[in-house]
Each structure stands twice: as C-alpha cells, then as structure tokens.
Fold this sequence. Notes:
Strand order of the largest sheet: 1-2
Number of strands: 6
CATH class of the largest domain: Mainly Alpha
Helix content: 55-70%
Radius of gyration: 31 Å
Mean pLDDT: 94
Structural class: mainly alpha
Strand content: 5-15%
Distance between the termini: 72 Å
Low-confidence stretches: 1-6
CATH architecture of the largest domain: Up-down Bundle
Number of domains: 3
Shape: elongated
Amino acid sequence: MDHRLSTNNMELNNLTAISPVDGRYRKQVAHLDEYFSEFALMKYRVKVEVGYFIFLSDKKFFKLSAKTKQALQALAENFSLNDAEQIKQIEATTNHDVKAVEYFLKQELENTDASAEKEWIHFGLTSQDINNTAIPLSWKDCLENEYLPAVINLQKKLKSFADQWKNIPMLAHTHGQPASPTRLGKELMVFAERLDNQIKLFSTIPFAAKFGGATGNFNAHAIAFPKKEWKKLGNEFIESLGLQRLQYTTQIEHYDYLSAHFDAIKRINNILIDFCRDMWLYISMEYFRQKIKEGEVGSSAMPHKVNPIDFENAEGNLGVANALFEHFASKLPISRLQRDLTDSTVLRNLGVPVAHTFISILSIEKGLSKLLLNEAKLNEDLEKNWAVVAEGIQTILRRENYPNPYEALKALTRGNSAIDKKSMHKFIDGLKVSNEIKKELKAITPQNYIGV
C-alpha cells in the first residue's frame, strides 16, 4: 500500500496534526480553543447575532416574549458542538459562514412564538458587522481571562525570585566582559519592572468593533427607518458588549487598536527573549545549576548533559509568535478601498501566535522551577576579577582631588587578568593619600561593591 495514500485517512490527533500547536503542545494550549477555534468563532458570532436581535426588540422594533428571549440567550450561552455542526452543514450550501449562522438562528426561531420575527435576525447588517464584533470580543475575553493573567503571574514570579536573591552579589558583564558587580535580585527586577511597565501600557489600548452596515454608513438601516438615530443605537449596542464602536469605517474595522495589541505583545515577548538569553548564559556560566529529573536525558550521545532546554524552547516559540504578530500588525490595517478579503484568512490564524506565546510562558516557568543557585561559582568569579573595583577606587580618589586617578587605575588594570586582592592592596599602599583613605579603599571588595 502506498504510504502517502494511507495517511490521507488518518484521524486528527496529537501525532497527526500538521501544527505543533495542535499536536505536540496541544495539552498546554488546549484551553485557547475557547477563543480561537472555528467553533469559538461560530459561538461568538451567535452571541453577537442574538444580542443584536434582542437589542432591537428592546428598542421596540418588534415584540419578543421573555420566554423566547431566555431561550435565545441560553442558546448563545450554551452553544454546543452539535450547533456548530448544524451551521457547517448549512454553510455547505451557502458557501458563506456568516450567512450560515443567520440561517441557523432563523431555523431555531421557527419553533418559537417569534417565528414571524425571524427576518430581524441580521437586520441591515453585513457579515463584517458580525465578524468585526465577534473577533474583538473573543480577543478581549482571551486577553483578560488568559493572556494578561499569565503574564502578570510570570512577572510576579520574577519579582519573587528577585526578592529571594536581592542580596546575592554577582559579577556583571558589559560587552561580555567583567564589569562593576551587581546583585542577582536586581538583575531579575530589571525584567520584572520592564514587564510591569508594558502590562500597564497594554491595558490602556481599547477594544474596538466595526458595526455600521455594508460600507460603514448604516445605509440599509437608515433607508428602512430614517428617523432612528442609528449611530447612537450602534454605539449603545456595541458598548453593551464591552467594546467601543469605531465611528467612521469602511466595510471592516481599521484593526489599528488590534495592531497596537500585537505590537504590545511583541514588546513583551522581546523582553522575555532577552530574559531567556540571559538565563541561558547564567546557566552556561554555572551561576545556576538545574534540578535533575529521574529518567530524563539531556543528550542522545553525551550522558553528562543537563541542557537549558526550557529557556531555549521559550526563545524559539517567542520568535515564531513575534514573526506572526509582526505580519498581523503590518498587514491588517491595510485594505484596498472599502475592503478586500485579505484580513479574513489572517484573522483565522490569530490564535497561533497567542498559542506560541503561551507555550513560551509555560516553558519559562518550568525553567525557573529547575534553577539551583550556585553561590560558590558567583563568588569565585568575583574573586577572579578584583579589577572591577578600580571604578570605585578612582572615584574616591577623584573625590579627594588626587591627580589623574582614572589613568592610574587604567595603567594598573586594563588588560591585566592577574589583578587580585593582594595586587590591588599593594597599589593602594603606594598611593600618596592618608591612611584613613587607604583603609577606606581597602574596604572595597568585589562582593560589597554592589551599589544600592
């Protein structure tokens, strides 16, 4: 049997999925299907269509009994896989996914006391009024329920580690070379603060929807009911969903706010990439060891290996996420004239970079849980690099108006790897300063020259 033919009949599971998001990593991101799957898109479309239908009845366009209203709200709230399959069957005929939702809801109304009112479903709307409300709504729910809590939780974990290691002195490296010592906790606080700043900035970006008919002017609405204030009604409906209605649009949303969200996530992801690379280097410098799990293998050939795979996995997935977010942010705000269809297929991939981002966050958390601080190595590197206290010594000498202190320390230390406590104190003894100043200078060590 031809293997290529036999695989055509394989059922989708974690081993046969084309994308690792739906395959290898499915367990880690399965919860995201509530926001980004085809089923989720249908559910949010139904929510918008039902909400609009009930809104029109509340505004006295037609009468709707409390019983039918409750039944429709229950349908939207408890939208099932069976409901979604019915919509797909209808779509097989219509070849239009939003129209299929409209027909599905009309069918549901036929067996109620509101069957005569079914033409108020999708009244005056175009499909993008539904899509560009459903997608921002699902996006908002995902960010508020899943993404922001995950990032905030990671930020708090970094801050917790920073507090734990706030008094641990560490040799700093600038340009890859030994530099003025720092504190391990402070270096982690750099990332905690950066994340905190970006989370705050992220939270200022609005969630917007487009809702205004075929080309954004409420043409059909106004021709049917010219005395109604349709812009005001549109605003009221969209705001009832927790979104902002864009006032001047083409057939589709601008996606400018959505792009701002993508750029904000990219910045957060870049911070996390920076963090992963630093942790990778600290592990390679043996500032951290990693907990060993029984049965795990670090290399298929080298038995001794314990690799920083979690930070590497996170870095790789963050890169994939950012590549997609970059495309989304630059593509979606651009559409020919009053609209083209290029946004549609792009938006269907919205969950992919979010999933890669989640995989990364989980990998970082796993990597952090394996860390074992190696204080002996941190101290050893500090002791090997007494030259780094030269900055402090020359600064005190400047304070004392000592002639050319920078140049004196430069001559002693630059390119000299043999500087240790003994040679530094010998240099201090040769300075023409008071014994009190010499005592002050000798009190400086790589371990205590760590600032505030």
